[in-house]
Amino acid sequence: MPQLLKHEKWLAERRIRLQIIGGDSHRVAQLSRKRKLEDRSPIEILPMMPPAELHRHLSQQAGAGLVPIQDNFYNRHLTCPVKALDSMAHHLPVIASDLDSTREVLGEAGYFVPPDDGEAIRKAIGDLFDDRERFAALSLAAGRRARELDWSRRAEEIREWAWGRV
Q1: Where do the domains of the chain lie?
Q2: Which of 70, 99, 109, 136 is the most buried (most CB within 10 A)?
Q3: Distance (Å, rounded) from C-alpha 118 to C-alpha 123?
Q4: Alpha helices in the chain (DSSP H)
Q5: For the segment 18-43, what is each residue's pLDDT rounded down to a tens digit?
Q6: pLDDT at position 129, please?
Q7: Residue 62: how many CB atoms within 10 A of its CB?
Q8: What angle do CA 108, 114, 120 make, to 5 degrees?
Q9: How confident is the model over 101-112, as a mean pLDDT?
């Protein structure tokens, strides 16, 4: 996330607000101190939220999701990027690190960038908000993918598989 802080002035010039959600209060304070524009900053760093509060927040304030995870063994193979799922549940287009795990979850709903590349993330943010057609297409894809991954649908598929095997 620190690589995004260096784009604070660019975000301010474009009137794009960036909210970074997650982490404990110590980490939030640490990252907040690194902002250069302080009170005028377009970057707001918020602590982790309970799921109901997070979904209310996303439905009222988010325009897109951002899942910039590091390229390591765990993130590449063993994790499920929950922030991507949260964003898709609200039909938000998602900019994410280009890893097997994010591609598997996001499918066509993702705008993928190289991991840990702040310049690529900045470019993707600009591209996404400058191209209305791309934004709309990714939003629609996010809604479709969220329906595909819905727990009730998955549970029904598992039930059908289990009953078919008995």
Answers
A1: 1-48, 58-165
A2: 109
A3: 9
A4: 2-5, 8-14, 25-33, 51-61, 73, 82-89, 100-106, 118-130, 132-148, 151-165
A5: 888 887 888 888 777 777 776 788 88
A6: 94
A7: 17
A8: 95
A9: 95
pLDDT of residue 56: 94
CA angle at 68 for the pair 36 and 25, rounded to the nearest 5°: 55
| Residue in this structure with the two tokens 């993918």, named with its chain if needed | 145
Nearest residue to 93 (alpha-carbon basis) of 119, 68, 111, 115? 111
Cβ distance 128 to 95 under 8 Å? yes
Choosing among 3.40.190.150, 3.40.50.2000, 1.10.3720.10, 1.10.260.40, the CATH entry for 58-165 is: 3.40.50.2000
The tokens for 16 are 């794009």
| Greatest pairwise CA separation for the chain in angstroms | 63
pTM of the model: 0.84
Q: Which of 156, 166, 1, 165 is nearest to 83 (CA)?
A: 1
Is pLDDT of 154 > 80?
no
